[in-house]
């Protein structure tokens, strides 16, 4: 048998090296390259990342490690050559039905590695074909648990579920699945149109919601602004009223103080020499001034019985003034009586002089 040829039994048992020709005819994953089955030349050199399974007299003997190895001719025979590199297998496209009864066309890529060459050689007839079929069935099973929307959203969890299911079943085959990736998901045309309409409706809904939220926020801001403006206006009016009241109170107090000071000064002036004559003169001047302003602001006027007699009006006013200022004070009747007589005499003389001046004028 020449180097590189594969005996019939070896062809049935070396599924880890290549896939069957029926896989190519059915559109499944293509066969991968291998180094073939070398002959027993006593001294053998095993390449790195390969494991050669040796049988002695038809029974498993050992696995040759990379490097130099020596076998017994005729008794020892190399039956399987397993690659320890990571293997990439294309999972063919298949149909699957989701939880909401939508038929999908889906394919993927499988990444695996042979961890135990002995189990991969004697545990299963064709490891790659078995893993590929297991990946397809697991994919259909996992897709049946999800709805169409979740299939697109949960691709990572779907890949992880397929990897876990493959590793649980392929542990006895000496194979470990490293990753599984979904390549393409093909949706029926009608379903695709429905999905596009749903997306457009969802976008219109979001736009409407955002617009309504913007209108609401605008109305809230306007109302809040009006509220703050009214609060500030009322506070300003309150402060203005408080300030106005304080100003009026200060003005009244100032007027009262000024009037009290004027009264005090007037009282002090009246106590001086000829104070009563000055008071009589002031009363006469005020009478003449008031009489000159009659009928200027209103048509209704009040006149005394004899408006031309200034002397009688001054005498009457001074009599009232003298009666108020010369009232007796309890405790000093004598002194007040004498003082009153002197004041009345002085007042009469002053009045006579004032009357003469008015008549001359």
Automatic annotation (TrEMBL):
Q: Which residues form a coiled coil?
A: none
DNA repair as a keyword of this entry, yes or no, is no
Record region (Disordered): 326-361
SUPFAM superfamilies for the chain: Band 7/SPFH domain
Write the record's keywords in alphabetical order, separated by commas: Mitochondrion
Matching Gene3D superfamilies: Band 7 domain (3.30.479.30)
The record's principal subcellular location, in a coarse class, is mitochondrion
Q: Start and end of every Band domain? A: 41-199
One cellular-component annotation, GO: mitochondrial inner membrane
User: Where does the record place it?
Assistant: Mitochondrion inner membrane
Membrane topology per record:
Lipid-anchor
Query: Biased-composition ranges for Polar residues?
Result: 334-348
- Say which family it is in: Belongs to the band 7/mec-2 family.
Function, as annotated: Mitochondrial protein that probably regulates the biogenesis and the activity of mitochondria. Stimulates cardiolipin biosynthesis, binds cardiolipin-enriched membranes where it recruits and stabilizes some proteins including prohibitin and may therefore act in the organization of functional microdomains in mitochondrial membranes. Through regulation of the mitochondrial function may play a role into several biological processes including cell migration, cell proliferation, T-cell activation, calcium homeostasis and cellular response to stress.
Stated name of the protein:
Stomatin-like protein 2, mitochondrial
GN (gene name): STOML2
